[in-house]
Amino acid sequence: MNKLVTALAATTLGTATVVAAVGMTSPATATPPAALTAAPYGPSPTPPRPTVVPASTQEPVVTTPTVPSPTFTLPTVERPTITIPTIPRRPSIQATTPSPTPTPTPTPTPGPPVKPGPSGAPACSGVLVKPTDNAADVVDNTPAGSTICFAAGLHRIDRPLRPKAKQTLGSDQGAVLTGSVPLTGWTADGGDWVVKGVLPEPYRQIGQCEDNVTNICHLREQVFVNGKHLKRVASRELVVPGTFYGDYDNNAVWIGDNPAGRSVEMSKTPTAIDGGQAGVTVRGLTVEHFASAPQAGAVVLGGGWHVFANDIRWNHAVGAMLVNADGATLERNLIRFNGQLGVGQYSTTNGTIADNQVSGNNTDGFWIADWESGGIKTTWSNGGSVRGNLIKANLGVGLWSDAYDDGRTFSDNRIVDNAADGIRYEIGRNGVIENNTITGNGLGTGRGSGRSLWDGGGINVNTSSNVTVRNNTVADNVNGISIQSRTRGNGPWGLNVLRDVVVTGNKVTMKVGTAATGMVQNSGAAIPTGEVVLKGNNYTLDSLTADRFQKFGQWFSATEWQKAGFDTESQFTTG
Fold first, then answer.
1. Which residues contact 562 (CB under 8 A, 6 or more apart)?
2. pLDDT tens-digit readout, 227-263
3. Residue 275 confidence (pLDDT)
4. Rounded distance, CA 330 to CA 385, Å?
């Protein structure tokens, strides 16, 4: 057997996080576009940590849009039986009555895990913010270390909240922070409805869209009718119920739903909570409808922040961002339906992203296959972990480490039904991917999607070094485990290469389509013999004679794969 397949194109994808600015035609009234600043995820040409200005704080440039922790079973250790010799009493000593043997206290049975979201927030006692107050003013006028409690209701945030050091922003009453404004004064016109004078000045394009013809995913405003998110379309002629069109030339918004008797709102404020002060806590809040720029977050964590038990949803770009957020923890949040990405992390040491539910993100049409859309993405970060999260049904990669992450651990996550790879570990080093359950990923369609090992798998290790993939359950994904070596240039550690990858102790199910496990390389990035080790894995296949393994374009059955020197200590079964 050992059949050769048709050689795949060796065109190398650039680092997905390097964003190219697309020039736009400026209207007569526009000023020339300013120089494009580096996007938060873009790699720096030098090793030192870059200084980041979150995109939400940048001044817009005027152009016209063209349209559970791991479970370990410890061995049972038998305590030795010790026989104490009987010592005769001396006649002169009267024996005392021994004390009764104490009854051991039973170990309490752990309760169910705390559900993510505001219902898990503790009581809040402190400075009260009512919906009629200006929340930013209250935060500005409250001293460091204080607790600020948001009352139940809708709080309209017209400028970012920038808490002081060790302040707490919280609620135990279901407070909602919104970045949207009501739209009124609609006029019927040709079967649609229009309101004028509500859009900002046009701004530059950031990001790559799934539809790279109209390129409208970068436009930040979202429109909601009775809380339902409308889909943006590229022209007035395409407006139908459930959609809207933003006409920046004429400063008009068109919708296809009759607004009479309905609440119509448009996101406007770019960021809900940010600032560089340390030790801030954010808990118990719903954060929605913020017009965040691509790669920027509605909630931006700083050093030592603790953000937990919140619902961060329906914001244009990233739900929560850790930026220069050393030691920060993002845990037990619902992070869902955001326009680009659920969670982003950049230039952070020992950050923790744990026990969140990250689902349904990329609602605004960013490129699914290869531009930081989907569940969670981390870059330029050292140490720390992403663990215990449910990452589900995101239009993009489930969990992605890209561009010079070092010493990161991805463990105990459930990664289910994401459109691209389940886990992608790209241009990093010293990574551990362990004890994750990864099912049904990489089966999306669209620009750049495919079914080969070049396109990814349940787990995809791409041009990285010293990466261990162990004890994961990988089932029914586009591929099992894909090891990719690409020509990716130089970085802070020298030439980017794939070296020292160990895949062991995994349970991998591959039964349908062209699903495979193995290695691919392009001509400029050959993998030396012995740099990829597969051992001690358990594969479940549709047939032991099926070609489910691949090395550099050559297909192998299970027996042939072992004869080629791979997985010699592994098990292969059908079922």
1. 568, 570
2. 999 999 999 999 999 999 999 999 999 999 999 999 9
3. 81
4. 11
Distance CA 209, CA 204 (A): 14
- The confidence band for 271, taking pLDDT boundaries of 50, 70 and 90, is very high
- Reference 65, options 264, 241, 232, 231; nearest CA is 232
> Hunting for tokens 């020509």 — which residue is that?
487
* 87 DSSP assignment: -
State the Cα–Cα distance between residues 542 and 558, nearest whole angstrom.
11
Provide the whole-model pTM: 0.82
- The pLDDT of 310-321, averaged and rounded, is 98
Burial of 437 (0-12, 13-18, 19+ CB in 10 A): middle
Q: How far is CA 480 from the centre of its chain?
A: 21
The residues that bridge with 169 in the sheet, in sequence order, are 148, 282
Query: Tokens 């560089």 label which residue?
Result: 276
Beta strands in 324-441 (DSSP E): 329-331, 334-336, 341-346, 352-354, 357-359, 374-379, 385-387, 390-392, 397-402, 409-411, 414-416, 423-426, 429-434, 437-439
Q: Amino acid identity, residue 239?
A: V
Cα 342 off chain centre by? 5
Mean pLDDT of 530-553: 97
Q: Are 65 and 205 in contact (CB under 8 A)?
A: yes
% of the chain at pLDDT higher than 90: 79
Strands 228-229, 223-225: pairing is antiparallel
Task: Say what percent of the chain tops pLDDT 70.
Answer: 80
Question: Residue 121, exposed/middle/buried by CB under 10 A (0-12, 13-18, 19+)?
Answer: buried
Residue 463 backbone dihedrals phi, psi, to 5 degrees: 50, 50
d(CA 371, CA 368): 7
**Looking at the DSSP assignment, which residues form a beta bridge with residue 475?**
439, 509
Residue type, 178: T
Alpha-helix runs per DSSP H in 453-513: none
